[in-house]
Design goal:
- Pfam families: DUF4169 (PF13770).
- The chain has two helices and no strands.
- The chain has about 60 residues and is an all-alpha fold.
- The chain has one domain (about 5-55).
């Protein structure tokens, strides 16, 4: 005998899979790799530290 399935659940599962596939495709097309994100984060951190190191103390005198 055939297995009984809930059609609503099947539709939702299929829809989720399609959306996930579309999202992964967009991420591959438009996104940045993990290495590029890490490199940019490192550069931003170094630049912020450099600016803080060159900050004047005391304010307006």
């Amino acid at each position: 005998m055939a297995e009984i399935i809930n059609l609503r659940q099947v539709r939702k599962t299929r829809s989720r899979a399609e959306k996930r596939a579309a999202g992964e495709e967009n991420a591959a097309r438009h996104g940045r790799s993990k290495a590029l994100k890490a490199l940019e984060e490192t550069r931003n951190t170094r630049e912020a530290a450099r600016l803080d190191a060159h900050r004047r103390d005391g304010g307006a005198e």
